[in-house]
Amino acid sequence: MNDALAIDVRGMTKRFGSLVAVDHIDLQVRQGEIHGFLGPNGSGKTTFIRMLCGLLKPDDGHGICLDHNVITQSEAIKRQVGYMTQRFSFWEDLSIRENLDFIGRMYGIAHRRQAVHDAMRRLGLENRQHQLAGSLSGGWKQRLALAACMIHRPRLLLLDEPTAGVDPVARREFWDEIHALAEEGLTFLITTHYMDEAERCHRLAFIAAGRMLTRGSLDEVVADSKLVTWAVNGPDLQKLIAPLQRQPGVEQATVFGNSLHVSGINPSEVYRAITPYQRKPYFWRQVEPSLEDVFVHLMTRKAVPQ
Amino acid sequence: MRRDRLTFGMMIGIPLLQLIIFGYAINSDPKHLPTAVLLADDGPHVRTILSAMKNSGYFDLTLLASSETQARQLLARGQVQFVISIPPDFTRDLLRGDRPTVLVEADASDPAATSNALAAMKTIMNGSLRADLKGPTASLNASDGPIHLAVHGLYNPEAITQYNIIPGLMGVVLTMTMVMITSVAITRESERGTMENLLAMPTRPLEVLIGKIIPYTLVGYVQMGLILLAAYFIFDVYVTGSYLLLLAISLPFICANLGVGITFSTIARNQLQALQMSFFFFLPSLLLSGFMFPFRGMPQWAQTIGQMLPLTHYLRVVRGITLKASGLGDIVFELWPIGVFLVLSLAVGVARYRRTLD
Ligand SMILES: Nc1ncnc2c1ncn2[C@@H]1O[C@H](COP(=O)(O)OP(=O)(O)OP(=O)(O)O)[C@@H](O)[C@H]1O
Ligand SMILES: [Mg+2]
Fold first, then answer.
1. Closest by alpha carbon to B278, among B253, B259, B256, B260?
2. How far apart are CA B91 and CA A188, in angstroms?
3. CA nearest neighbour of B109 among B296, B302, B335
4. What does the buried/exposed string (b/e) look like for B324-343 if buried means 16 or more CB atoms within 10 Å of the residue's CB?
5. C-alpha of residue A191 to centroid of ligand 2, in Å
6. A50 lies in a domain?
């Protein structure tokens, strides 16, 4: 990872009628970085990514993407960007190989056969190369999509929920692959709703309702949230949830496996809330909030204006 | 249904369109057919005959031809439906009771357009002279009438309907498939999301369009080939003119229809809508172009609409080449309306064709 920026855009805005889908978002992504892009459904992630690769015209904003002006030079940007759409968008009546070959031709790449072959091998698609794309299962469709958006050796990959519906083993392999590619200098901007994936990103941006809420590394985002979380172990934790949630200062009380996480912004209020239960058989300890705690915290704060 | 206004509009619009076309535009008894006369004699009896023809409503005497060649050319180009030749010494022969021959040459490529007028012609001509021939000449009115009428149906002498329908079918099939296939296929591209993928690639929209147009053009030619083969082997309809010319002038026609298809695809939000719009275009093309019903039988407003449709002109060209052995010179004036339509439809289609998703 070096300090050169692959993406440096400011004030990106997109309106659909009266709806402001993306509202003055700034984003900087360093080269070789894996940047997570999080936000609830309908927060504007897809819209933002589409503006980056010239699929939508921004209503406002300016900046640089891979050394090109993001407003005026989208043709040049497209050549160096691989975009994986959220929805499967390949030709269902073509086979895997034909799809890849067609895309290779659209990019006008040299040594197309070899490139198609490499792409298929990298994602384990060789055995199914003659299967029609329309008949693939969800996970295999995702792999095809990933193979397709890397076929022209882009410098930046914009992946919109690339692992939705992919099994855990394949997801693990996929992320290992992404880290390996980032090591070689590729830059990634990835949207996801999986927190474990978000934790594997170098840095994160969190948007809601088109606005940037927080940005930074995992630790920074967690620290920034100023969230305090206590975990409790013991029997019948379910019974604690309702009374705890009624206490002032408790934002969340959620069970994670064998423990219950109680979080809030104000340390003394949270402490006061759990005091009545600090007795046997409950065992309390303060923990680092998980990214999910932070995510939910940011979202509930959005919903209830301060 | 409430959300899909276009579908709703079409469900009202299509029956309305049919109602108007079938109710008002179609007339199976075509009148006011343009007629040229070649006069080698212009005595008073000739004038009587001509004015009676005019008064019958079937014939509009639009032109006085100066020579046999000119008259033939008018017919070949479809500018007139009939040429009536009055022979020299007509008046003398008439009064002598020699029953002079009046030659009527008809463009019979569409039997439906001429049959009624021809059937009426004999009565009109002989009847008109009845008032003229009085007193000593009244005997000429006897039995067969004072003149002899010779009718030559040119281009399709046996009045076989297939000769007219099958070449025309080529234009109809091309219109239907070209407009429908392109509009539905491109709409499907956006519906399935593959358009998003295409647009994210560094291809120019024009390249994508051309990539789509070329295969469809080939499909169009395959269709033409099939129809021509079937026409030849099954229906005995063969092209009297140049195959090469036929194939060449089909290109602008096919592209004009592709342009319409592209334009529709930029408006339609799903494949069903694209199909409905294609149908909305196809219906007047089929009914007002002169394919189903004689063009000259329609009222003026319907003819004006028909003139704007490329199929109308293409039909004339195809019928000209297959039945009349027309050369380029005979059809140029039908080509430019197709050309204008081509330029307009492609311009609108390409301009509206999206470069972005919004
Ligand atoms: N073409 C469009 N026309 C009108 N509104 C749109 C359009 N595309 C997106 N929107 C609206 O913009 C907002 C942001 O949508 P977007 O798809 O960017 O969200 P997202 O963050 O990608 O959501 P998800 O996590 O569900 O994929 C939504 O409210 C959506 O309804
Ligand atoms: Mg999205």
1. B260
2. 98
3. B296
4. bebeeebbeebbebbeebbe
5. 8
6. no
**Residue A149 near residue A82, CB atoms below 8 Å:** yes
User: Is A234:A298 a contact under the CB 8 Å cutoff?
Assistant: no
Q: What pLDDT score was predicted for residue B78?
A: 78
pLDDT tens-digit map of B272-322:
888 888 988 888 888 888 888 887 777 888 888 888 899 999 988 888 888
A239 interfacial to chain B (CB closer than 8 Å): no
Residue A68 belongs to a domain: no
For residue A273, being part of any structural domain is answered with yes
CA nearest B250: which of B170, B333, B166? B170
Give rounded-to-5 percent helix, strand, coil for chain B. 65, 10, 25
Give the pTM.
0.75
Closest CA–CA distance from residue A293 to any residue of chain B (Å): 35
Q: In the numeric block, which tokens belong to residue A12?
A: 């990106």
Number of domain units in chain A: 1
Domain map of chain B by residue range? 33-154, 161-352
pLDDT of residue A206: 92
Across the interface, which of A16, A83, A91 has its CB nearest the CB of B194?
Answer: A91
Cβ of A83 and B203 within 8 Å?
A: no
Work out the percent of chain B whose per-residue pLDDT is above 90: 2
- The CATH number given to B33-154 is 3.40.1710.10
Do residue B193 and residue A85 have CB atoms under 8 angstroms apart? yes
Enter the tokens of residue A186. Answer: 């590729």
Inside any domain, residue A258: yes
Reduced to 3 states, what is the DSSP secondary structure of residue B93? helix
pLDDT digit string, tens, across residues A50-109: 999 888 889 999 999 998 998 888 888 988 999 999 888 888 888 999 999 999 888 888
Chain B neighbors of A87, CB-CB under 8 A: 193, 196
The residue range of the domain holding A274 is 228-288
The residue written with tokens 């004038």 in the block is B47
Mean pLDDT of A266-290: 86
Give the CATH number of the domain where residue A263 resides: 3.30.70.100
